[in-house]
Write a structure and sequence with these properties.
By secondary structure, this protein is an alpha+beta fold. It is built from 9 helices and 14 strands. Helices cover 35% and strands 21% of the residues.
Length: 300
Amino acid sequence: MARILLGCIIGRAPTKVITCFRALLDFIYLTQYPSHDDHTLQYLEDALDLYHQQGSFGTTNNYNTEMFKCFHIDCAKEGWRASNFWNKLPQMSLAMFKTYLQHFEREEDRIVDDELAEANCPAFRKNHHCPSFSHQLCVYLNVLLDRSEALPRSHVSFAHLPFDKVSIWNSFKFGRDALENDMDRIEEWDWIKAKPGRQGAVGRFDMVVVAHTDEAESTGMKGIKIERLRVIFSLSEMIRNWYPAPQEWSIRGHLAYIEWYKLSSDMPSHHNMYTVHRPLSPTNGVVEGDIVPLHTIWQS
């Protein structure tokens, strides 16, 4: 949660407070490296020095021992009561893990079965907030055609989809590449959603990190774009008049429709974070977006 709080306080707290918070985060993340050398130890020292250079901020308001007392109840007392008081530590650990799993299942929806949606249906585009979905899908399918069959870019706006419906999903769970994953053998999981609201509820359309070019790496922003996920779907196996879809479509697998967001070119030194801006309202009626393979989404 701490990394999320840093983004929340930017523009709402003094520069020194933000710098102090960022330095503390840097130190915390650096300490989690499985091994260190002279360079990383220097990074730790630099982060700690930067933290102390910001001065003293006193005691945090509304902070007391009650929070840690609650942790003791959840992590020790309830686990102890769940054991038979003999060889208690493994039983307490198991009880805590079961409690975590129950909480996780309440918080996260299961991946739902796919459902058919009419790609040209106004209600579908309204629910997913994707007025340009049909247009961008036509552009994507046109690129898959042989050059002799493809339409000129200026004519794509007048094209029609060769099918009426696509299979859609509301969420997708995937393993995320993490630094030193090969050493600690712990795989990190991420969960992205493109879920419209139902019965007046607010929908959820996650921001995602997309590898836009082959230059994209696990660290840094080269070849990376920040997008808003609108639809998770796969192409139809049949086109109009019951003709089978081209083989190329099935090879593409699951796809995602995303809308581009603008990323700032630099990072202010006091927080070292990029700024993401909503795209400007389209002048030609087409929202900037793209159809991409689902596997190019690296994280939420």
